[in-house]
Amino acid sequence: MAILKPKILILLMVIFFSGNFAAQAQADFSAWLEKFQEDAIAEGISQGTLKEHLENIEPIPKVRELDRSQLSHKDGSPISFGEYLQRMVPDFRVKTAREKYSLNRNLFQAIATRFKVEPAYVVALWAIESDFGRRTGSFPTVAALATLAHEGRRGSFFRNELMELLKLIDAGIITNPEPKGSWAGAMGQVQFMPSSYKAFAVDFDGDGENDLWNSLPDALGSAANYLSRVGWRDSGGWGQQVRLPKGFKLSKIGLDKVRTQHEWRRMGVKGIKGPGSEKAAIIVPDGMSGPAFLVYDNFNVIRRWNRSNYFALAVCHLAEKIVN
C-alpha cells in the first residue's frame, strides 16, 4: 500500500476540511434563506417575486471580504483622514465636479429652488458616491444584501434592507429585472439603500418613475430631497477647521458636546469664523494629534446619509472646493 507523503496528506486534509466548511456554510445560508422567505411572505411579498429573485442565490465571498476591510490599507491598518481625503477629493475630481456643476446649472437651480439645498453638496455626494454616475456598482443587490444579512457585522440592518428591496420590486417601484449596486446594497447614481429609496426617491423629471440609475434629475433631486427631509438648513454651512489650545481635554470633544462659537472661543479654540451665536461641536477624526473641526447641524445631516466622519468631511470639503 502506498504511503502518502506528509505534504500531500496535509494538502488533502485542507481540501477535505475546506470542502466541508463550504458545504456547511451553504447549508446554513439555505436554512437562513428559507426562514427569511417565510417572513417575507408574512409581510406581503408575493411568492412570484421571491421565486424570481431568491431562488438559487448564493452568498458572495467578495462582499464578505469588503465588509471586513473598510477604511483600511491592504495590510489591515486603518487609513488616516488625510489619506482618505486625498483618495476621495483628488484634484481631478474637484475639476470634474466644477464642470458638472456648470454643465447642469439649470437642473441644479431647479433642485435648489424646490428643496432649499445648496447644489454644491448634491454635486459632492454624486461625485463621491458614484464618480458622477460612472460607478453605480456591479454586485447583484439582492444577493449582496442577503450575504450581509446572513453573516455581516450588521445582520439585522441588512436583513431589513433586503426586505425593503423586495417590497419595492414587488410593488413595481424598482423595475430593473436584476438591480445592481455596491457591495453593501446601495443603488443608483447617489447610492441609496432600499429604505432610503422608499423614503426619499423622487420623480424629478416627471416621467412616472423614480429611476436613480438612468435619470440624472431623479438621482440628484432625490439626493436633495433626502438632505432637505432630514433637516438641512439652507445656507447654514457645515463647519470649519480650527486649532485647539495646548492641553485641550478630550472629554470636551464629540458631536454631543455642543456649545456656541462664543463659548468655544472663551475655551481657547482658535480660528473660529462666525458671529458667535452658532451652536457647534468639535470633532478630531484622527485623534488629538490630528486636525480639529468645528461642525454645525448640517454636518450631522450629512452623517445621516453616511455615519462616517471621514465621509461627511470629504463631502463638505469637496462642496467648498466646487464653489470656491
How would you portray this structure in words?
It is built from 14 helices and 6 strands. The N and C termini lie far apart (80 Å). The strands form 2 sheets. It has a 4-stranded antiparallel beta sheet. The protein has a two-stranded antiparallel sheet with strand order 1-2. Mean pLDDT is 91; it is low at 16-23. It is an alpha+beta fold and 324 residues long. It is globular and about 65 Å long. Among the domains are: 14-79 and 138-187, Bacterial muramidase (Helicase, Ruva Protein, domain 3, Orthogonal Bundle); 239-295, no CATH class.
Features:
single chain; 324 residues; alpha+beta; Helicase, Ruva Protein, domain 3; 14 helices
Most strands sheet: 4 strands, antiparallel
SSE-based structural type: alpha+beta
In whole angstroms, the N-to-C terminal distance is 80 Å
Q: Could you spell the SSE succession in H and E letters?
A: HHHHHHHEHHEHHEEHEEHH
Q: Give helix % range.
A: 40-55%
Strand order in the sheet with the most strands: 3-6-5-4
Looking at the structure, the CATH topology of the domain at 14-79 and 138-187 is Helicase, Ruva Protein, domain 3
Number of helices: 14
Beta strands, count: 6
Amount of beta strand: 5-15%
Mean pLDDT: 91
Specify the CATH class of the domain at 14-79 and 138-187.
Mainly Alpha
Low-confidence stretches: 16-23
Any idea what the radius of gyration is?
A: 23 Å
CATH superfamily of the domain at 14-79 and 138-187: Bacterial muramidase
CATH architecture title of the domain at 14-79 and 138-187: Orthogonal Bundle
Global outline: globular
